[in-house]
Amino acid sequence: MTRAWILPVLLVLGGTVMATVLTSEGSLGTAVVILLAFVLLAGVNSPLIFPRSIGAQEAQRRSAADGRPVVFWRPGCTYCLRLRVRLGRSARQLHWVDIWRDPAGAAAVRAANDGNETVPTVVVAGRPYVNPDPEWVREQLSPPA
């Protein structure tokens, strides 16, 4: 199992244990609500909510060809999730690199952030921006007027 799935699996297991205890105590309704909440949290923290990640080298090659930004992220990052949700459908136009799956991506983030793996790091035209405003990122997708 990769690191990206550890948190979602732990959330589902924790929710299952809590729901089992609540069911044995006779609180079936509460158990269902708790289990659904934990499953929802697991889904939000899983790689499933993000567009398919590619390697850093491939993302940089594609970005050079089409001019779209590269987003370095990792599962479980609240700020990455905020960026993804606020971008909406526009997020699919970006090149996403999961730094936990791609060592070259993690190295690129460390190089841009004084040795820290601070995400989201968005690279636009070769320049990194750490945790930028989602509206600004959306503007970078629009061709210059």
UniProtKB/TrEMBL annotation:
InterPro entries: Glutaredoxin, Grx-like_ET, Thioredoxin-like_sf
Segments passing through the bilayer: 29-50
Residue ranges annotated for the Glutaredoxin domain, each copy included: 70-127
Keyword check for Flavoprotein: no
Signal sequence coordinates: none
SUPFAM superfamilies with a match to the protein in the record: Thioredoxin-like
The organism's place on the tree of life at top rank: Bacteria
Coiled-coil region(s): none
Record's keyword terms, sorted: Membrane, Transmembrane, Transmembrane helix
Transcription keyword on record: no
Protein name: Glutaredoxin domain-containing protein
The species this protein was found in: Streptomyces gibsoniae
